[in-house]
Amino acid sequence: MSMKITGKIDKKGFGMGTWALVSNSGEVYELKNAPAELKKKGLAVTVTGTIRNDVMTIAMIGPVLEVESFS
After folding, report:
1. CA torsion sign, 56 to 58 to 63 to 69?
2. What CATH number corresponds to the domain at position 22?
3. How many CB atoms lie within 10 A of CB 21?
4. Mean per-residue pLDDT for 47-55?
5. 28 confidence band (pLDDT: 50, 70, 90)
6. How many domains does the chain have?
7. Cα 27 to chain center, whole Å?
8. What percent of the chain has pLDDT over 70?
9. Backbone φ and ψ of 69, nearest 5°
10. Rounded to whole angstroms, how far apart are CA atoms 59 and 24?
């Protein structure tokens, strides 16, 4: 099920780095399939996507959010 999350883009420093969305309420989501336009630290956005409970990552910084769209 798709959800909308508003916050700011951040790059977490694990290995080559992991792009994340830090919501306005402080929750951290690891971004999956983020387009290049979204990979800008500090960018204020609303991301529409699906939480992927079937995906594990090395960074393990929070739930994995598969990006569908953003504005």
Report:
1. negative
2. 2.40.50
3. 26
4. 96
5. very high
6. 1
7. 10
8. 97
9. -160, 170
10. 21
Which domain covers residue 57, as residue numbers?
Answer: 3-70
Q: Say what the pTM is.
A: 0.92
Going by C-alpha positions, the residue among 43, 59, 55 that lies closest to residue 8 is 43
Look-up: residue for tokens 């598969």?
66
Average pLDDT, the chain: 94
What is the pLDDT at residue 14? 65
Nearest to 12 by CA among 4, 21, 3: 21
Tokens of 40: 């800008």
All residues at 6 or more sequence positions from 14 whose CB lies less than 8 Å from its CB, including other chains: 58, 59, 61
Q: Which tokens belong to 28? A: 């951290």
The C-alpha angle with vertex 40 and arms to 49 and 29, in degrees rounded to 5, equals: 35
